[in-house]
Write a structure and sequence with these properties.
Elements (H helix, E strand, L loop, with lengths): L2 H8 L1 H14 L21 E6 L6 H15 L4 E4 L7 H5 L6 H5 L10 E3 L2 E4 L11 H12 L4 E7 L6 H4 L4 E6 L3 H15 L5 E6 L3 H11 L3 E5 L3 H4 L7 H14 L1
Parallel strand pairs: 1-5, 1-6, 2-4, 2-5, 6-7, 7-8
Antiparallel strand pairs: 3-4
Bound molecules: adenosine-5'-triphosphate (ATP) and magnesium ion.
Magnesium ion (MG) binds next to helix 3 and strand 5.
Length: 257
Amino acid sequence: MSRIRAWLDASPIADLAMTFMREATGRTDPIEPLRPTRPAALAEGRRVAFWSLVGGVGGSTTAGLVAHRSAAGGRAPLLVDLDRWAPSLALRARIEAATIVDALVQPGRELALVSRWSAVPFLPGSAALRGRLDVDRATQVIDAVSGGAPVVLDLGTGPDSLDAGLLSRVDRLCLVAGARASQLQAVFCALALVRDVPCPAGLVVVGVAEDDAALVAERAGLPLLGAIPLDPYLAEDQFAARAPTLRAIDALIRRIA
Ligand SMILES: Nc1ncnc2c1ncn2[C@@H]1O[C@H](COP(=O)(O)OP(=O)(O)OP(=O)(O)O)[C@@H](O)[C@H]1O
Ligand SMILES: [Mg+2]
């Protein structure tokens, strides 16, 4: 505790402040002090991918938050939207720019085609892929653009997005689950696919507390990587999050870092 804080606590100002607080909040205990935490960051060269069997569970949002939070704590990761059917991160970023398709067909110009989403270098996805992705070329693009920085991939959804060639260059696959019954069912349906991937996989559950997420992970037989709470800002499609959500993202980053 700082000397100024100790002095304030010992002075009559503290009693006065406590009285005001009780009147304003109806609470008798002091409010828990804010604990600013240093954002967690992915290590140099670390590559992580987010995927779910069904859409709408929060995979893209979690990938975006991991990239932004990691950029605040260390070297900014490259964020790549590889959703081949319904890429949504550019919408979220409110960016209209060159996409992964532009980078795929312009060897040598990849770096010039990368956008920035705040501090995060970002390659938006493209529905022009229509499900087809040249994985070797995509890997070349990612290698050329990332330059040794960490990489966060939004693989999108569906069985075809779990490409073994791509995943052999990834350090961790995060299988993302939502909290609804049908979304949880999709996790158990996805297990047969996840078992075959050439990198370690773990579970991220969106919209539940850590202990419930731990139960789901135990049933699924996957390590729990993260439990991301329901966030009212994210639920309204804003790309802003409350402190508990950011703490959960930090915990996720530390487990996959
Ligand atoms: N932690 C959260 N709390 C509340 N709402 C969330 C949270 N994460 C995501 N959402 C909201 O859920 C919806 C789906 O999120 P998102 O687009 O990230 O899912 P997805 O799994 O990538 O699915 P798709 O690719 O089909 O869009 C969005 O409206 C998003 O704002
Ligand atoms: Mg998505």
